Amino acid sequence: MDRVRLAIASIVLAFSATAAADGFVPWVDRPITPPKGTAEITLDFLVGLDEGAAGKVLGPAAGLAWDRYSGLAVRAGVFNGFELGFAGQFLWAEAGGGRQLAGYPYSFQFTTGDSHLVPLYMYGKYEIIEVLGVELGFLLSPEQQLGNNRPALRLGLPFKWVFSPGMLAVHVRPDVVVGFADMDNPDVVVREAVQVSFYADAGIAFNLLPELFLDLTLAYGRNVFPDERGYLPVSFAVGWTPIGSLDVFAGFTLANLDPPAGSRVAGRHLSIGLAHRW
Predict the structure, then answer these.
(1) For the segment 197-243, what is each residue's pLDDT rounded down to a tens digit?
(2) CA dihedral over 98, 99, 103, 105, signed as positive or negative
(3) Domains of the chain
(4) 145 by DSSP, 3-state: which?
(5) Residue 19 main-chain phi, psi, to 5 deg
(6) Is residue 117 within 8 Å of residue 89, measured between CB atoms?
(7) Which of 48, 101, 222, 254 is the most buried (most CB within 10 A)?
(8) Could you read off the pLDDT of 95-112 as tens digits, one per residue?
(9) What is the pLDDT of residue 126?
(10) Strand partners, 115
(11) Burial per residue of 169-190, b for 16 or more beta-carbon CB atoms within 10 angstroms, e otherwise
């Protein structure tokens, strides 16, 4: 048993020494915007595990409660404290119905075997102070024939407080999303010209080791106009930073802890992904 413990400790120390030599920043210590001249590409993959429909929705897409940058995302530090980014998701689905992407409502209405590209997101983020930023983005749905799938503006205020450097941080972000419909389009289902939704998440992140991080995030979203019932997603994620330029992560999300009917755990999905920086 002592030899096993010694071997495990040696492996952990070896990884820590490698990461330290690589000069990486632990997950909890990372700033709101990347440093000037650096960039990151992220790819995550979602597998739907909904009750009675497991595996019927999948593809490169955002799935965690704190994730605003869906599927394939690229971001760069253009100036000190200023970030530009782009993201997009593509889903294959065999189940219709409405969904939310961090406050952005969209719909699936098609038959088995169809796919859905929604939405594309372009944004700029500015770090006002070390713990607070502001983000303005534009969401564009390539498939706008459905009422919810409309161009939209997102205004977000990301906040992050590092309580214990290298160990513990808290993050909070409220967003307002305003969508605009083409009222001259006869295929538009939702008749309001303007649609307003609110979304906010709050989470806590731990670095158990410099390379190993955990995150637990609870969120609340609601369509404010037209007014609709809110929803309450929660996500748990675990990640590993084997080298300074790479993160590998996996997470599990319950889509709504306060459903209008049915089980609290009926809507759920698994997310896996990686991020590379240079």
Answers:
(1) 999 999 999 999 999 999 999 999 998 888 888 999 999 999 999 99
(2) negative
(3) 25-277 (2.40.160.40)
(4) coil
(5) -65, -40
(6) yes
(7) 48
(8) 666 677 777 876 665 444
(9) 97
(10) 92
(11) bebbbbbbbbbebeeeeeebeb
